Amino acid sequence: MVIILKDGATKTQVNDLMDWLTRFDVKTNLVEGVHSKIIGLIGDTTGIDIESVQSQKIVEAVKRVQEPYKNANRRFHPDNTVIEVRGRKIGGGALNVIAGPCSVETEEQTIKTAIAVKEAGATMLRGGAFKPRTSPYAFQGLGKEGIDILKKAREETGLPIVTEVMDLSDLDLFEDVDIIQVGARNSQNFTLLKALGRCDKPVLLKRGLSGTLQELLMSAEYIMSEGNTKVILCERGIRTYETATRNVLDLASVPLLKQKTHLPITVDPSHATGVASLIEPCALGAIAVGCDALEIEVHIDPQHAWSDGAQSLTPEQFTATMEKLRAMAEFCGRPIDTAEN
Predict the structure, then answer these.
(1) Which residues touch 319 (CB under 8 Å, ≥6 apart)?
(2) Which of these, 101, 133, 98, lies nearest to 302 by C-alpha position?
(3) Contacts of 110 (CB under 8 A, 6+ apart)
(4) pLDDT > 90 fraction of the chain, expressed in percent and rounded
(5) Judging by beta carbons within 10 Å of its beta carbon (0-12, 13-18, 19+), is residue 19 exposed, middle or buried?
(6) SS3 of the chain: helix, strand, coil, percent, to 5
(7) pLDDT tens digits, one per residue of 252-273
(8) pTM here?
(9) Residues 300, 184, 309: CA angle, nearest 5 degrees
(10) What does the pLDDT look like over 51-61, one tens digit per residue?
(11) E strands of 270-325, at which residues?
């Protein structure tokens, strides 16, 4: 970190500032130029709040030399993190495909979908038991009953289950869930993220609605700083001025994140585009740029889905898409995970 001081800063003020900075277990180095004075900090500066430093009377500007996230940073963890989930390995080189309905509606609907996606080659089952909806009058999910249905689908198929937590008060219900998903709206719910950091369970963390990559990594840092290193990042599209699709899928974020972090990366083309016909080409592109997993919505009857039917594939469409995804994954040297549970 580099701190540029204002003109006229006295020696006493500079010494007081340097004494204050040493409380953060960093070394300070004062460089006095002809026209300015600069304090360089050496050590781990991730615990220093830039705004607190900036608020000091003699400080002109503050610049970080390193990123503010440490646990998620590839610089401190050069090897890729591999997260094992019931025999599946996310980040281990093979591609995982997480598929299932947007919402858990009934036991029959969920189990039929689970069987269909497994037969097509999916490696994990997704389904929303709790649903954050823009309208308070829209279907909000079955809650605990939805989680119980997902567990029955797991018993039937052996597929690990992925479902979203919305509120800290519901966290106990997720004890037997394989991967806890944090949706875009909760990506900066820091109280929830810290609680998930105290869980020994994989967390699939989605990018915020208009979140930057640094904000996504800092959200991951909240989880990891509490001790849970099993974090999977998810690019699910961001909101821009473009309205042709539900969101704008940022495929460039995948290779960029690969440079910045060791955490595995998932891409969700369903929520990103909101259009079923765009899921396949975007999923193919996601594999090409290096994602570790895909999350795709599949429903046995999209036209009558209780939520997000327009972005859901039928089992037949998903089967056809999986054939192309399998070919792309093989071509890229990262075949779809075939581990059996």
Answers:
(1) 116, 119, 120
(2) 101
(3) 100, 101, 104, 127, 149, 150, 152, 153
(4) 79
(5) exposed
(6) 35, 20, 40
(7) 999 999 999 999 999 999 999 9
(8) 0.85
(9) 20
(10) 999 999 999 99
(11) 293-297
Phi and psi angles of residue 37, each rounded to the nearest 5 degrees, phi first:
-120, 140
DSSP state of 154: H
Residues of the chain with pLDDT > 70: what percent? 99
Separation CA 121–CA 232 (nearest Å): 21
Please, what's the b/e burial string for 213-235 (b: 16 or more CB within 10 A of its CB; e: otherwise)? beebbbbbbbbbbeebbbbbbbb
Looking at 9-13, 40-44, 125-129, 224-228, which range is the least confident one?
A: 40-44
What is the token pair recorded at 57?
Answer: 């009377």
**What's the token pair of residue 94?**
């093979």
Distance CA 14, CA 19 (A): 9
Distance (Å, whole) CA 138 – CA 313: 21
Alpha helices by DSSP H, listed for 158-212, are 190-197
Q: Are 39 and 2 in contact (CB under 8 A)?
A: yes
Handedness of CA 276, 281, 286, 292 (dihedral sign): positive
The DSSP symbol for 96 reads E
CA distances from 187 to 93, 99, 161, 180, 222 (A): 26, 21, 20, 13, 10
What is the tens place of the pLDDT at every residue in 139-148? 888 899 999 9
Q: What is the pLDDT of residue 341?
A: 45
**Contact status, residue 81 vs residue 261, Cβ threshold 8 Å:** no
3-state DSSP call for residue 30? strand
Phi/psi for 221 (5° steps) reads: -60, -35
Identify the CA nearest to 232 among candidates 273, 180, 271, 184. 180
Higher pLDDT, 1 or 146: 146
Tell me how far apart the alpha carbons of residues 230 and 81 are, in angstroms, rounded to a whole number. 8
> What span, in angstroms and rounded, lies between the C-alpha atoms of 106 and 224?
35
DSSP E strands, 223-289? 231-235, 265-267
